[in-house]
Structures are given as structure tokens and as C-alpha cells.
Amino acid sequence: MSDIEKQQQEAITPKSTTESATLHDETEIYQLKDEVLTKKMKLINDAIDEIGFTPYHLKLFFLNGMGYWTDTQLTFIESSVRTFINYQFGYKFPISNEMLAAGLLVGALFWGFSADLIGRKVAFNISLLLSGLFTIITGTMSSMASYCIFVFLSCFAAGGNLVLDTCVFLEYLPHKNQWLLTFFAFFWGIGQVIATALAYAFLPNNSCSSADYCPSHINRGWRYVYYTNGSIVLAMAVLRLTVVRLKETPKFLVSNNRDAEAIEILHHIATKYNRTCSLTLQELESLGTVEVNDDFRKHIDWKGLLVLVKHHLSILFSNKKMARSTLLVFLSWFLLGISYPLYSSFLPQYLATRGANISASTTQGVYRDNLISNAVSMGGPLIAGGILYFFPIIGRRGVLFIGGVTSMAFLFGYTQIKSRPQNVALSSISYATIYIYYSALYAYTPEVFPSAARGTGNSLAIACTRVGSVIVPLIFYYSNKSSTAPIWICGAFVGVVGFIALLFPYEPSKHRVA
């Protein structure tokens, strides 16, 4: 290993080696039902730790982060143009928001389940590409029906990114560097900042002012927003295909008795970056054969698929400890899926009832304030990652608790704001603190699901938050916009998920994931 590579390795490894040795156990976080698979996963983890962090991991970090970027970018596109879409097509009910949530829900389930059946590689390569294409096409639509269809399709394509990106990165990542998963939410902030900035650039001067007269030729702003955002997503998809050229993850291959392919990939990375990998095919094969072979190629009929899906689900509830962990993670995602979207959807309407001095009086001012808040939100993942790096003893659960409780406090504070500066300040801080929680939960979730069912578990967790997102437009549409009740509900839910984190049975920072 060269001096430069040693410096790179030290830069992404916790500084206190004594503390790190105490906190990090070489045993796996959970024992799988299949003893052969458990032993093989330990050898794969040993090999990955032996290779260490390489430039390949750095490429994966940025290109997988683009999936997070896309997810929030598409969400903020739809929310920023919704008013002008409704003006043009004569709608009041947020039907496009429902289609967005439905697309993300179906996409999370489809891509997540398929990732455990056919592997991570296919979905990783095509989901972002399809999302970019559908997003651009959305900007050409001439009716609400066709617009909603392509909102659904673009979000369906993007819906698997949050499921797959952490899975792929985690399954290549050395244990000492798993804290980097927390930083993925930083890309989420980038996506929403870009979406908000483009809305700020195009909508104020290219949109209708009311529903009374809103023909397409004076309401082109929303189309420009879709064209530019879709082009950015498409460019990121091309980078994924050309820069990384992702190979299937070794842990997925071993789960499917494809040991030779797993060894080939590990040795390829080690050779390319002058690292050591002492694991041999003979060592893996000497342990035996995995009992349940999940290889999709051997189960092409519907009955075989259902058997595999049932097997993946059973892994998530294979014992009391695993079942408790799975249910608490699902509950946390569901409550968060209600509280955060409700907060972001309801807050502008609530502030409008509090007086002109609370919110900006112009469209430009509204987008400017929103841009500031979203830019500050990127500090949340940096804070979460910093806590895990400098104070590893706190662990994932501690960061989740900190993020949930501080978010609750600042959301409750919103009921007392009396000026526009207070509005911008509290909005910015609330976004940042809730992103502390978000970033830790996004990292924690794939870590506590075994590799054989990681895509399935991650997809169901994300699906729980999407179900909450489907409910939010209904709450928002029928709620009293001048009432503080929704804000209290948001704060309470975020506080509850913070306390739930203390009940999680696993602490991934102390053990390796299988």
C-alpha cells in the first residue's frame, strides 16, 4: 500500500484506534438461520476489510449518492410546480402529489423485491436512466391525466434508488467505514436545493398568477423546471453507466451459491488498487452449499418466485430479536412518512394565516426563503456523520435519538413564530435537525437487514414511509389551515421515533453486517 493510499485510508477511519478496537467487534451483527451462509458472510466481510477503502468505494459513494439526489429532486419538482399545474388544468385537489407518492411506493417495492431476486446491478443501472427520461417527458404533457401518468412513471423509476443505493454501497464497504452511509442524506439536500433553485429561476417570471386565466403559452415555467431537472438526472444516469460499471455485490452472489463470481470480483478490486485479498474459492466452497438458493435464474415460474419472496420475508422475522428490530424500523419509517411531508406541505399554508409579516409577500421571496432553508438542511447529515466519526460510542441509535428529540423541540417552536426572520431561522434549523435523524435512519436500516433479504427489508421500510406520504395530501386537504394541530402532530411523531430508536435491539457500529 502506497503512502497516499495509507493517508486515504486513515482519513476515513475513526481516529481513536483504541476506542475503535473496543467498539468494533469482528463478529457479525446477527446469526443467520443458514449456518453455511453465516460462515461464508464472515469470510466475505474479512476479505472486504482486508482490501479496505479504495477509489472504487469513493466512486460508489458519489454515484450512489446521486440516487438520493434524484429522489428528493423529483419530490421537490412536483411540490414546487403543483400550484401552477392546477392553475393550468383547473384542479384543486393535489392529485399529482398522490400520484407521486404512489409512484415512489410502487417503485420502492418493485425495485427492492427484484434486487433480492435478480440482483442489485440491473436495477442500479437502469432505474436512474428511466427516471431521467420520464422526467423530461413529463414536461411535455398537455393534460392533467397525462401529466399524472408520467409523474407516476418517473417516481416509479426513481423509487428504488433509496432502497438500492445504500444496499450496494454497504455490501462493498469495510466495517470501519460504514459510518459513511450517514452522509448519503447530504446528497438528498443537494437534490432539493437544485430543484428549489431551478424553481426559483424559472417559475416567478414564467407562470400564471391565478387560475382565472392560465393558458399554456404564459405558463411555461413548470415545463422548464421538468426539462432541466430531467436532463440533470439523465446526465447522472450516464455517469453511473460509464464511470463505475457496477458488478454484482459479492454478498448477493454468495447468497446465491455463485462463489466463483464473488471471488473474481473481490480479487479484481484488490488487484486494480494494489491491495491484498487472501480469500480463495476453495475456502468458500469448503464450507458447503447455501441451503436456500435464491438464484432467480433457477426459479423463473411464478410459484418459484413466490417461494423466494416468502423466504426473504421470513428472514426479516426469523427470530424474536430480528422481528422486533424489523417492526420497530417499519414503524419509525411510517411515522416519519407522515410527519415530515405533512410539515413541509402544511407549513406554508399555516404561515399564510399568521399575517403578512411572517411569510414573504412575493413569489420570488417565498422561493428565496425556501432555498435558504433547504441549503441549511445539508448540515444535518454532516452533523450526524461528525458525531459518528468523533464520538463513535454514541452509535447509530444515539444519533437517531438526538435528531428526533431536537427536531421535536424546534417544530413545537414553530407555533410561536412572529416574524419572517424567525420563520426562516426555525425552518432552516428544523430541516437540519430532522436530517440528522433521516441520515442516521437511512444508514441504519440496510445495516440491520441480512444481505439475503436486504433489498426486501429496505424496500418495505421505504414503502412504509411512502404509505404515510399517500395519507398526507388527504390530511392536508381537509385540515384547518389556521390550526396549529398538524404542527404539534408532526413534532410529536418525530419525537416518538427518536425515543423508538432507543428500543432498537441492534447497534451496527459495534458489529459487522452480514
UniProtKB/TrEMBL annotation:
Q: What Gene Ontology cellular component terms go with this record? A: membrane
InterPro entries documented for this protein: MFS_dom, MFS_sugar_transport-like, MFS_trans_sf
Instruction: Give the family this protein belongs to, as stated in its UniProt record.
Output: Belongs to the major facilitator superfamily.
Annotated signal sequence is none
The annotated regions of Polar residues compositional bias extend over 9-20
Instruction: List residues traversing the bilayer.
Output: 99-115, 122-143, 149-173, 180-204, 224-243, 327-351, 371-391, 398-417, 423-445, 457-479, 485-506
Keyword annotations from UniProtKB, A to Z: Membrane, Transmembrane, Transmembrane helix, Transport
Q: Where is the Major facilitator superfamily (MFS) profile domain?
A: 53-510
Lineage, top-rank taxon, reads Eukaryota
Q: Which GO terms describe its molecular function?
A: transmembrane transporter activity
Name of the molecule in the record: FGR2
Pfam families the record matches: Sugar_tr
> Region (Disordered) spans which residues?
1-20
Where, subcellularly, is it found?
Answer: Membrane
The species is Candida theae
The membrane-topology field of this record reads:
Multi-pass membrane protein
